[in-house]
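Quick note —
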Amino acid sequence: MAKPPAEKPPKNLQPLKLSAVRQPQQDEDLQILYDEVMAKLEETIRWYDWHKNHNKRLASLLRGLAISLAGVASVVPIAVSMLPDSWKPERWVPIASILAALGAGCIGMDRLFGYSSSWMRYVTAMLNLQAQRELLQFNWTRRALEARLGGGTKSDRLTADLNLLYNARLSINQVIKEETLEWVVRFSGALQDFEKSAVAQRTSMADFGHSLMARQGSLKVQIAGFDQLESHQCELQLGDASIETHHGATKAFPHVAPGQHVLRVSAQRDGKRVSSEEIVTILPGETSTVTVTLV
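Predicted structure written out below.
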């Protein structure tokens, strides 16, 4: 005979909830106070439960994006090397750095806003509050059963019950206080780390800019017979850059990558098109000068 399928266990373990047991001749105000403490405890547990799930989703999203972006960034150089030369694959290599930076940004956002750490804090706080609820319910039931057996005077039982509810409320406040203090410490540390990272990044970018400037050169172009050109203008193009219209006998090209570049200059003179094409060599940190004669 086939066995019935086993019932699927719940996703999360459910806490124990006991019914409120009343004491004989219990003061009505005492029961109202117990209900108010329990209501506050339930409200606090629901708050932590909702924010736990909210931060869990955000933390999983940011961490998942960071892992995915890092994985794609590591594959991009390999994939680019397989592209045909006509696609100019070297232009796609920086995408790996962009993806890696985006992944690091996801990690930074998670650390700054504390989604992952808050998720863990909220789980811990919620479990502590659930334990406090079970403890209060057990103690309240024990006090009711003891009262049925006639233990102690009514005044003593009332004082003990008030102390029980008061200590339960203090326990709730203590859990919230400890969770909040931990949040303050983690958030302050995240802000300090973020400021240190920002300062280090600015310093790194400044050093990179200086080194980049030192590796680049510049070009100064002098156009012979510029006064004879129509409209006193000409068109210049350096390498694969766009064509520029220039009004003047001298043109400067700053921040040019070292190496050999093709310089093209064209203009109108006496109703005819005149032009020149030169190969110029740019040296790092130096200014090269070339004189162009249009023919």
